[in-house]
Structure formats: C-alpha cells, structure tokens
Design brief:
The longest helix has 20 residues, at 175-194. The protein is globular, with a radius of gyration of 20 Å. It has 271 residues and is α/β, with parallel strands linked by helices. The protein has helices spanning 35-43, 60-70, 163-170, 175-194, 230-236, 254-269, and strands at residues 3-8, 16-17, 27-28, 47-51, 74-80, 87-92, 106-112, 115-120, 123-124, 127-132, 146-148, 152-155, 198-202, 223-225. The strands form four sheets. The protein has a seven-stranded mixed beta sheet with strand order 7-8-4-1-5-13-14, sandwiched between helices. The protein has two domains: 3-133 and 175-269, Rossmann fold, CATH 3.40.50; 135-171, no CATH class.
Length: 271
C-alpha cells in the first residue's frame, strides 16, 4: 500500500504551548493537532511527517529526497510552505570534498499507528544546522544602500554590520530569495516526477505571501499549487479559524486539523 508524505513547520508538528513557560521547554510536540495525522486516521493510510518548528523552505528538497530514499512507496507529497525570511545557518568543523548526505540531520522523532514522524537534529557529528529568522525589531535597522564606481560598496559595511542586518536586507527580501525559492520548487517537482508522485503546495495562514512565478525555471510536471491558503479556504466553507486557536493564537486545535484533513486536502487533490 502506498504512503503519503507531509512536510512542514510547527503547524504539522502537533505543536502546543505549555502555559506559564517561555523558551525551551515551553511547548510540546507530536500531539494530535496535526492534519497529517488526522489524514492518516481518516483514510487508514500510512503517513510520513517531516517537520521542524520554524523550518525554512530551503531544506525541503533535502527532506524530500531523503524520504524517497527511505520509503519507495510514496505516491503523494503535501508541503506546507514555510514563511519567507526564515533561513539556515550552518557550520562544518571539517569541510570535505564530498558533501554530507541529505539525511545527515534526519532523526526518527516519533512513531504512532500509521504515522512516522521525522525531524532534524541541530548538531550531528561535527556539523551544525540551525534555523533562524528575523524578529520585529530587526526590520527597523536598515542602514541604507550606497555604491559608487570609485569606492565600490559603501553601505552596508559588510565588516561592521551584523549578520542579521546584512542577511535581512541584502539577501532576504530580494530577488535572490525569490530565485532560490523557485529553484527549490523546481527541484522538488523533478524529484516527485522521477518517483511518480504528485506534489501539492499550500500555506496555512492567509498572511503568508510567496512569489507566484512558479514556472520560473521551467514548467512544473508533478506540482499542484493551492489557489487559497488553508485559512481562507476554511473561512469560505463557514469554518472560523479564530474559534479554533490554541492559547498562543497561532496554532490550532485538533478539531480544526481534522476539518483540514476532511475538506482541504481532498479539495487540493481535485485540481
């Protein structure tokens, strides 16, 4: 029997905050408020979930390839696109000519009936991979841009500005981030086509904005892109997301995730 693969961030991870706590240990994972888990139960089908809270889109091709290498019977892939401006920092104590494998950071985090959940470790052997993102105050620290043929790049001063300042304004929020996103989509489309699997792309919140030229590097062969966010779709079907918020007013309860599995997933598969 075939399997369905879901990949995404905390919205797929069964994320629940713990009242009165902050920082590490302030939340629990792999609870049943995950539409991927609900999909497995509703369809009596084996499901693979690969998720990390706060993940970035750029790691999805690695996750996808690693899952096809571990499971040769995946027939459909659902990816919950991460918010833009998230990124990855890394460190390799020893940089070898041969690149580390795509599953180098992969861990089997949890097993449940019909469900296997994979995640990423941060430190594996002598390599580090860590997700990060700007916070609200970072957006107020734009130092401008100044370039002249005589002096070259004047602002930003790459040796004085913080890494976050340089990353946020001169890499993220530019055509570079857009193009890298399209390359990742094109790569994932080809991986799925090579494995005879269908790929579905969606976003959870209506505030999540992504560039729309998905065929930038070529026509996609196996990919369906949802025309509505999950939030907007649910509203159009008289399901109010605001009534299903958990205490953090960002993540949703089990009932909402079950409704996604019952309604939204079949809808996107009909495209």
């Amino acid at each position: 029997m075939s399997k369905t693969l879901f990949m995404g961030d905390s919205h797929l991870a069964g994320y629940q905050t713990i009242p009165g706590k902050t920082g590490p240990g302030s939340y629990s994972l792999y609870n049943d408020n995950s539409f991927a888990e609900q999909y497995a139960t509703l369809n009596d089908k084996e499901v693979i979930i690969y998720c990390v809270a706060g993940t970035a889109n750029m790691v999805y091709p690695d996750w996808l390839k690693s899952m096809f290498e571990k499971h040769n019977d995946i027939d459909e892939v659902h990816i919950l696109l991460a918010a833009f401006n998230r990124f990855v920092i890394a460190f390799n104590k020893t940089l070898l000519e041969k690149t580390i494998k795509v599953d180098h950071f992969t861990t089997l985090a949890k097993e449940k009936p019909l469900v296997k959940i994979y995640s990423d470790g941060i430190i594996v052997e002598d390599s580090i991979q860590l997700f990060n993102k700007p916070i609200k105050d970072d957006y107020d620290k734009f130092v401008g841009f100044e370039f002249s043929p005589e002096q070259g790049l004047v602002k930003p001063d790459l040796r004085k500005q913080t890494f976050m300042e340089c990353k946020l304004f001169y890499d993220l929020n530019t055509h570079i981030e857009h193009r890298n996103f399209y390359k990742d989509i094109y790569t994932m489309d080809n991986i799925c086509a090579d494995n005879n699997a269908k790929l579905y792309l969606s976003v959870m919140r209506s505030r999540s904005k992504h560039p729309v030229d998905f065929n930038y590097y070529g026509d996609l062969k196996a990919t369906t892109i949802a025309s509505q966010s999950i939030e907007d779709y649910m509203k159009s079907n008289d399901i109010d997301p605001n009534k299903h918020f958990l205490d953090d007013e960002e993540h949703y309860d089990t009932e909402y995730h079950k409704a996604i599995a019952e309604n939204y997933i079949p809808w996107i598969k009909k495209f």
